[in-house]
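In the current project phase, we have settled on a layout for protein records. One protein thus recorded is set out beneath this paragraph:
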Amino acid sequence: MSAERLDEINSSIVGCTRCARLVAWREAAARTPPRRFAGHRYWARPLPGFGDPAARVLVVGLAPAAHGGNRTGRIFTGDRSGDFLFQALHATGFANQPTSTHIGDGLAVIDLYIAAINRCAPPANLPTLEERANCRPYLVAQIAALERLQVIVCLGGMAWQGTLLALAELGLAARPKPVFGHGREARVGPFRLLGAYHPSQQNTFTGRLTLPMMVDVFGHARRLAAT
């Protein structure tokens, strides 16, 4: 069963200590929070996946934010990127509410699962190649466990590249290698990959990524998953 296998994978993720630099960073962030989070109890462990075990759509992000998911214990929860993402998911019927602030806030995602290239918050939001490779087996395992999966939405170029590498490990190498772009679509084996700019403040505050642009991507993901 998908749910049981995903639970096993998530238990392995939470206990992971493969990357010494990331272990130190995530724990240091928890010890020295910004004033707005003073007194908060941080998760400060790797983040498991989150969502519907029967999902036909998988979202792959880059990594947790030091004071977002690293604090709340749920991916894309408690930071500006998540605020933007969940608005788009709610608008397209993948989430029951447009906000996500903490575990237990009532959020549920439908027909969708959320994962990442790295499960620990990295310094400067930039995991090394070695750290990405260390974490890749978890994404490989989650893709394999999602039995109804049809569409993978990659948030940013690193997520796109990391997803292609994960699929290659499942024997689904893409030739020629598809190039990332917002709204770009590629078929890899039985899956459709969709590219989207990452909902970082660098993209959303500058207007490079707008909410209608993100809604369009997830609307297209819904249509593809229905075919």
About this structure: The chain has a mean pLDDT of 96. The domain at 2-225 is CATH 3.40.470.10 (Uracil-DNA Glycosylase, subunit E). Helices lie at 2-14, 20-31, 69-72, 80-91, 129-145, 157-169, 201-204, 211-225.
